[in-house]
Amino acid sequence: MSHTTPRRYWLTGAGNGIGAALAEELLKSGMHLAVSARTIAPLKVLAQRYPGQVLVVAGNLTSSQTVREIGERIQQEWGSLDTVIINAGTCEYVDTQQFDTSIIEHVVRTNLLASSYCIDAALPLLRAGIAPHLVGIASSVTDLALPRTEAYGASKAGLRYLFESLRIDPASEGVEITLVSPGSVAPLLSGNNDYPMPQIWSADNAARHVVETLKQRPQEIPLLALSMVALWPLSKMSNRAKLVIGKRMVRRAPPSIDTPQTNHDQCLSTTPSG
């Protein structure tokens, strides 16, 4: 008799964007899903639509104590996890004429430190799971520096290194690791970027592609529009050439200090902190 118990997932950033689309895809396929986001309302809607499948574990993931409590709740309810998708994140642009280190601090805390807290809580649960799989949402922005993405790119470069090191570290032996590297994903992407944006994926299409491809356990899943494919070879060019290309991508003056910061989806990636 085959084993038919649904896999147990923990998905962060499940409140909107690609996170919400991933939640829908996983739940439609019958998986059991622990969902985290800052805002609890959309998570409760999921729980109502998919009774018996959803464990709501909302909270601010930049608090290590909150993440520990989420891990303890999952342990109490389920005892283990089979797949963890660390998707929550944020994006804020840096205006170098009014350089604000608090922006960098906030983005790094949200995208890198919060992810490390989630990994800390997830690994013991994954080791107790079946065919454990740890998935992180990185970004293709790390292939080539782009205007005003200093904070976002630095945080995602750190996240990539963290996951790639975990892949070879004996402490995570037995846990397979995949990075998802988006180019740009709708619906939250808008015209606020001051550099030309590539053709975008819809959140639903991106989620379907990710869920299907994760079955193969690849080391990386790129989500690149055609014009983003050029980033990888460009990243291998000389520093001088990359500088020239990056400067040519700037097409508008930076916004004033009163312009609201954009969210994660507007920085060549996919996941607002939700």
- Give the mean pLDDT: 82
Radius of gyration: 18 Å
For the sheet with most strands, the description reads:
7 strands, parallel
* Beta strand count: 7
Low-confidence stretches: 185-192, 195-199, 226-230, 253-266, 268-273
Name given to the CATH homologous superfamily: NAD(P)-binding Rossmann-like Domain
Percent of residues in helices comes to: 25-40%
CATH fold assignment: Rossmann fold
Structural class of the secondary elements? Answer: alpha/beta
**Number of H/I helices:** 8
CATH class: Alpha Beta
Structure characterization notes:
The chain is an alpha/beta fold and 274 residues long. It has one domain (8-266): 3-Layer(aba) Sandwich (Rossmann fold), CATH 3.40.50. The protein contains eight helices and seven strands. It has helices spanning 17-28, 41-49, 64-77, 101-127, 150-168, 203-214, 231-235, 239-248; strands spanning 8-12, 32-36, 54-56, 83-86, 133-137, 176-182, 220-223. A seven-stranded parallel β-sheet has the order 3-2-1-4-5-6-7, with helices on both faces. Helix 6 links the parallel strand 6 (176-182) and strand 7 (220-223). The termini are far apart. Mean pLDDT is 82; it is low at 185-192, 195-199, 226-230, 253-266 and 268-273. Residues 258-274 have a biased composition (Polar residues). This is Short-chain dehydrogenase.
